[in-house]
TrEMBL record:
Entry GO CC: cytosol
Function, as annotated: Involved in iron-sulfur (Fe-S) cluster assembly. May act as a regulator of Fe-S biogenesis.
UniProt KW keywords: Iron, Metal-binding
SMART domains associated with the record: Frataxin_Cyay
UniProt cross-references to InterPro entries, sorted A to Z: CyaY (IPR047584), Frataxin/CyaY (IPR002908), Frataxin/CyaY_sf (IPR036524), Frataxin_CS (IPR020895)
GO molecular function annotations of the record: ferric iron binding; ferrous iron binding
Pfam family membership, one: Frataxin_Cyay
Superkingdom per UniProt: Bacteria
PANTHER family noted in UniProt: FRATAXIN (PTHR16821), FRATAXIN, MITOCHONDRIAL (PTHR16821:SF2)
Organism (species): Vibrio caribbeanicus ATCC BAA-2122
HAMAP family: CyaY
GO BP, one annotated term: iron-sulfur cluster assembly
Family: Belongs to the frataxin family.
Name of the protein in its database record: Iron-sulfur cluster assembly protein CyaY
Length: 104
């Protein structure tokens, strides 16, 4: 994949995360600044998601640690856990919010 394709795929993933947060009704604020998406919770904890263009990866940092995701068969998969990015975002949001979230 070239850089343009990488950015389009990451943009699509970030948009899906934003829309899912909006539709969940959860108390999660998010902000995009350049290549970084910051999710902030009521207790001021954060999840940081950013694109790593040189490696064509998405990185996620949260209370649970740091994770790197590579595109494998059209899914962003964690190199450490094998979990898909969107699933990990949902799990980490519930940990940070200290409650179950109704994801669409």
């Amino acid at each position: 994949m070239n850089d343009t394709e990488f950015h389009q795929l990451v943009d699509n993933q970030m948009q899906m995360i934003e829309e899912s947060i909006d539709n969940s009704g959860a108390d999660i604020d998010y902000e995009m600044s350049g290549n970084v998406m910051t999710l902030e919770f009521a207790d001021r904890s954060q999840i940081i998601i950013n694109r790593q263009e040189p490696m064509h990866e998405i990185w996620l940092a949260s209370k649970s640690g740091g994770f790197h995701f590579r595109l494998i068969q059209d899914k962003w998969i964690c190199s450490k856990t094998g979990v898909e990015l969107f699933e990990m975002v949902k799990e980490e949001c519930e940990k940070h919010a200290s409650e179950e979230i109704e994801w669409p």
